[in-house]
Amino acid sequence: MTRTHADARTTVVLITHNRRDELLHTLALLRRLPERPPVIITDNGSTDGTAEAVARDFPEMTLLRPGRNLGAIGRNLAVQRVRTPYVAFCDDDTWWEPGSLRRAADLLDARPRLAAVTARIVVEPGGTEDPVVRELRESPLPGPDWLPGPALGSFLAAATVLRAEAFRAGGGFHPGLWLGGEEELLACDLLRQGWWLAYAEELTVHHHASRLRDSTARRVLGLRNTLWFTWLRRPLVPALRRTGHLIRTVPRDAASVRAFAHATAGLPWVLRQRDPVPPDLERSLAALERARRTSPARRYVG
Questions:
Q1: In 10 A of CB 53, how many CB atoms?
Q2: pTM exceeding the 0.70 threshold for the entire prediction
Q3: Chain centroid to CA 239: how far?
């Protein structure tokens, strides 16, 4: 039975940009959670009245208005205000199932070296599993017996509860990536510091994809950031091999051309900050790369 009293261990953080109606729906669902978590929203420069609607309808929630679109860095801004040991990320079109935040906090309480737990994602309105869930469930990475589920090499910010201490120790989301697969770099740096990431089947997040989503723009950013992550953290030979695979396998369209052009333009700062991982972590990254090549959730990168 799900307990109904409040749980003071977790703060929910989300970012939004010009999705007022979807955000208000999500906030209403978060308000009804039995855990009654504090909620911090970073409005990334919306021009559709989002901030005004949130301030009017959800005065108990913390609203941050940086005045411009910070992308994923808006989460960093929000985490600066977090005073709980755990932070649950979600998007303006995703929400946590009642009881999942409490269970996630229990899992993290019992495992001091566990940085994050990622939930099963259910796609609404149909109630089907997101294709990425199979990838999480079948992760090829080995891990200690005390993990609550398969060890992961990355996480999904729309469906993950993180230890705030670990998030800060990892530096948060990198400002250079802005948005789109930004989790991979932070996850890699957490693993390098000795933290663990895990999938937890017993946790659930619901996702009702926004009608305002620009899938082409997201694909451009995701592919660009995949290339940047590759050259920031992978050793030379794997980086060359990964880049070559992407060149051969991504869709041959204008979006891919833009992604590679943007990635090339950013190479000066990427190479200045390049810091390849040690061999043991590279073996894990290589195993994840092989597994993802057959994942239906990652067709845009081949």
A1: 17
A2: yes
A3: 23
Collect all residues with Cβ–Cβ distance below 8 Å to 107 and sequence separation of at least 6: 114, 117, 148, 200
Quick check: 244 pLDDT over 70?
Answer: yes
What amino acid is encoded at 223 in this protein? L
Tell me what the mean pLDDT of segment 121-136 comes to.
96
Are the C-beta atoms of 118 and 136 separated by less than 8 Å? yes
> For residue range 154-186, what is the model confidence (pLDDT) as tens digits?
999 999 999 999 999 999 999 999 999 999 999
Q: For residue 295, what pLDDT is reported? A: 75
